[in-house]
Design goal:
By secondary structure, the chain is an alpha+beta fold. Helix content is 68%, strand content 10%. The chain is built from 13 helices and five strands. Helix 6 (139-160) runs antiparallel to helix 7 and helix 9 crosses helix 10.
Length: 376
């Protein structure tokens, strides 16, 4: 029993995470499907009205068949415009999907009950299976919709149909409802698994596999995007950290030991800086940190001391070799027309000053415009 509860709790958390993380992706997929379904509805309705009189002698469309034509045209027009202009807010698209389902359920229930009181239902059982599977909707909403219209259908059957035909129709609709629940669970489970796999590959493509922080390409991209976002009056700090004599570690202790040193360094940087800061491995033994909204010499000096004190201890414990690091930092205080390349160049100058002063040193510069930076 406890195991079943635990499994259900895990499945619930996975569903919640999926709808939270992939809301924009889900909205886009639902909008595409809504447009396709509305076009398909109109097409199937046209084919049905044209072909059925030749298949069933004496058949004529009811008022409910004919009323569905302008409604289907209107839905197709609205969703087509929205799909092509790309207006797809998640909540709006969800409401539209539910309204589409409600509209189709209402008309088909009328067609299968009031429209054909003497014959068995032809469409409702199929609708209960197919319609909920079209869209990616939270279970509580999907089940609420189908259960509500199952109740409406049962009332309509009891109202318009003879008992012998009605009980058969109700039974078939309940079978369709059961298949709908099973199919909807299966499809949602597959979609969640696919999303989780995509997220896993996305993370792997952006992370450095040794240090478990951003790789060079991703780190540079995120830093540049951040500087473009904050624009004028930018405040931030850029640190470049270089491991001292790292080549000697690889040459004397082996690459396995060197990999442990890189892992320890990444771990220490993640613990030292905020989750909102950008931390990445820039090269073989170089790391980069961009502190958002911070350009305090005192704070940077404290962070650098934490790193330069902790790194030799951790590497000694975990890799059997004490490794120090040199750090160069540049602080940017409310200056405009900033490029990442120039910010990096000045941080690199600071790193050069730190290494020139000896191992395990840190140097700090205030950002200056490119034409005056050399004077520093």
């Amino acid at each position: 029993m406890k195991r079943d509860v635990a499994i259900s709790a895990v499945a619930f958390k996975r569903r919640m995470a999926y709808f939270r993380e992939a809301s924009e992706e889900i909205a886009a997929a639902n909008l595409r499907m809504l447009f396709a379904a509305s076009v398909m509805t109109l097409g199937l309705l046209a084919v049905f009205l044209l072909v059925t009189p030749y298949v069933i002698r004496g058949w004529t469309p009811t008022l409910y068949h004919l009323a569905l034509i302008p409604v289907a045209c209107w839905v197709c027009l609205i969703t087509g415009i929205q799909y092509h202009i790309g207006v797809g807010r998640p909540l709006l698209v969800l409401i539209q999907c539910v309204l589409y389902q409600a509209t189709i359920f209402c008309f088909i229930i009328l067609v299968d009950t009031a429209g054909t009181p003497a014959g068995p239902a032809a469409f409702v059982p199929l609708l209960f299976i197919a319609l909920p599977a079209l869209f990616v909707v939270p279970h509580i909403i999907a089940y609420a919709v189908v259960l509500f219209f199952e109740a409406i259908y049962i009332i309509a059957v009891c109202t318009f149909k003879a008992q012998q035909i009605g009980q058969y129709d109700i039974f078939i609709s309940l079978v369709g409802l059961a298949f709908s629940v099973a199919l909807n669970n299966l499809i949602l489970s597959l979609r969640i698994s696919d999303h989780e796999m995509q997220m896993k590959y996305k993370v792997l493509s952006t992370m450095d596999y040794l240090s478990d922080i951003l790789n060079k390409q991703t780190c540079l991209q995120v830093c540049k995007e951040y500087l473009q976002t904050i624009g004028r009056d930018s405040v931030c700090s850029l640190l470049i950290l270089d491991l001292d004599d790292f080549k000697a570690v690889n040459d004397t202790k082996g690459h396995y030991t060197g990999d442990i040193v890189l892992q320890v360094t990444g771990e220490l940087l993640r613990k030292t800086f905020r989750r909102s800061d950008i931390v990445g491995r820039f090269g073989g033994d170089e790391f980069l940190v961009l502190l958002k909204g911070i350009a305090s010499h005192e704070l940077l000096a404290r962070k650098c001391r934490q790193i330069q004190t902790g790194l030799p201890q951790l590497t000694q414990q975990r890799a059997g070799v004490s490794v120090s690091c040199s750090i160069g930092a540049v602080m940017l205080q409310k200056q405009a027309d900033i490029t990442f390349d120039e910010l990096f160049r000045q941080a690199d100058l600071a790193l050069y000053s730190a290494k020139k002063a000896g191992k395990g040193q840190a140097a700090f510069l205030s950002y200056q415009r490119a034409q005056t930076a050399e004077s520093r």
